[in-house]
Amino acid sequence: MTDAATDRFPPGTRVRTYRHDPPHHTRLPRYARGKRGVVVEPEGPGELADVSARGRGDAPVEQIYAVRFEARDLWGEGDHHVVLDLWESYLEEDSDDER
Amino acid sequence: MSGDHHTDATIARRVRRLETLLEEKGLITGERLDEAIDAFLAESSPANGARVVARAWTDDAYRARLLADGTAAVQELGYMDGSYQRLRVVENTESVHNVIVCTLCSCYPLRLLGPSPSWYKSEAYRSRVVREPREVLREFGLSLPASVDITVWDSSAETRYMVLPRRPDGTEALDEEGLAGLVTRNALIGTAAV
Amino acid sequence: MARINDVGGTQGFGAIDTTDDTEPFHADWEARVVGLFNTLRAQGLFNTNEFRDAIESMPPAEYLAASYYERWFTAICALLERKGVLGPGELDD
């Protein structure tokens, strides 16, 4: 939905979500922390909810990505998929050597 | 629900008291509140989503635009103007079924689907549909063949999702209005087929 | 560890009541709470993320015992107190 060239993670990029357990509002559910997924596409920019939730007007604007996860990567079993919309700072590129 | 939550009468009294306090402080007026409630109800109906679906079923070019950029395509029909949210429409096919949830709260495309049903906001639905969607859909009376891949869309940011259900067989004679009449709220969420 | 609202995958909530309730509100006060939310947010008293944060910050047992719009009301009151619009305990006077 945005110019992919300007985005850090183009569609198809293998990413991993952070394992962090922040002591504040966040939009990365616990079931998807530290998990591997694949970027579907960028969803467009948005204010980082973690900061905006503190009532601050200076929340950074980041790209949000739709990221697709396989059920067995989330739950150890299952044949379905789950897609989450995740802010860029929730994600890092997944390097093959850690697999 | 446990037995010690506020009774309806108690909370109704507290809401009324808050309204009075905020009126005294000059922050709201009863009229303003009535307008906000009317606007909430008037702009939101599953008939809106049904109309979008019927258009997509009868107009291939519209369907393509809807799947490529849901926000712009529903704006063509007069919905979601001025909304800060984006809409993504996900299409059911013979081999793919989509279903929508918000596990963290209750995000939902209000204007296109109308106020959400209680089950959509329940812990039971929110906890289970990401873990065992096939079983959950069966509880709604929708049994999908094992060959159908289920994708659950967990609305965790500012994009809202709507399902484009499959057009049923034998509906060739129906016009757009007739088709829209077949589309239910649950079909737009993905817990039913049309 | 996460907040009580973060229920994706949590076991034990049981069967889903799939009743297709078409009434948006089950009591008049629920409509008033939605009206309050929309009006106060539009006036910039809080944003949506602060509101979600206030709901999630309810003690877990209270969150689970509260109805949907009771959570909204609790969050609105908490935010109004935090912003100094309501004095502590003013609503209970």
Automatic annotation (TrEMBL), chain A:
InterPro entries: CN_hydtase_beta_dom_C, Elect_transpt_acc-like_dom_sf. Residues 5-92 form the Nitrile hydratase beta subunit domain. Residues 1-29 are annotated as: Disordered. Pfam families: NHase_beta_C. This is Nitrile hydratase beta subunit domain-containing protein. It comes from Streptomyces pseudovenezuelae.
Automatic annotation (TrEMBL), chain B:
Pfam families: NHase_alpha (PF02979). Coiled coil: none annotated. One of its GO terms (molecular function) is transition metal ion binding. Fe(3+) binds at C102, C105, S106, C107. Its EC number is 4.2.1.84. It comes from the Bacteria. Keywords: Iron, Lyase, Metal-binding. It catalyses: an aliphatic primary amide = an aliphatic nitrile + H2O. The keyword Iron applies. It is an enzyme of class 4 (lyase). Belongs to the nitrile hydratase subunit alpha family. This is nitrile hydratase. It comes from Streptomyces pseudovenezuelae.
Automatic annotation (TrEMBL), chain C:
This is Nitrile hydratase beta subunit-like N-terminal domain-containing protein. It comes from Streptomyces pseudovenezuelae. Residues 1-21 are annotated as: Disordered. It holds the Pfam family NHase_beta_N. Signal peptide: none annotated. Residues 1-92 form the Nitrile hydratase beta subunit-like N-terminal domain. It comes from the Bacteria. The lineage of its organism: Bacteria, Bacillati, Actinomycetota, Actinomycetes, Kitasatosporales.
